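Order emerges. One example.
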Amino acid sequence: MSDCRYINVHPENPQVRLLEQVVAILNKDGVIAYPTESGYALGCLLDNKSGSERIRQLRQLSEKHELTLMCKDLSNLSEYAKVGNSQYRYLKKHLPGPYTFLLCASREVPKRLQSPKRKTIGLRITPNVVANSLLNFFDKPLLTASLILPNEDHPMTDGWEIYETLNHALDAVLDGGFTGFEPTTIIDLTEEEPILVRQGQGEFFGEVEAG
């Protein structure tokens, strides 16, 4: 890829022509930064192997750390995760929202993206308008990870600062305005009852509704 592009869009009504520039970069195996409700995130297409490696390298994540699928909705959830009826209701009740859910990965998810021992994958659905407008261009989720730099506790929240700091490592920064800085709440949904992994901005509910 060529030099990093800085693309600034309206946070509530992102311009289609500018989003199309980001789509073109992703389709050429690019890695981008884009806004979510919980800071900015790194993203690439699901089948972009080199992109996933670049995200791990930038975040200094080990192979044991599962990456997350950023989905526009739950319509194709069964392609990527194995969930029962009660887990599905739990997801539907809390998404879109500031959550990352750990789910049992289906066979459609490449092994390189799963946690090696547990065979799990993360899933997010953000209420952020810019992120969802971008996701609407694709029929698959984006592979993603929060843009939390090594030795930092919170994700980056300012698009221009990200561009100035990481333009050497990214192909595009999609600036959709300032975002919240508190990370998502991580909930493990691989068992019968939800397990809190990390408390973030989303409220944790410890029980699923009976089916």
The mean pLDDT is 91. The domain at 5-198 is CATH 3.90.870.10 (DHBP synthase).
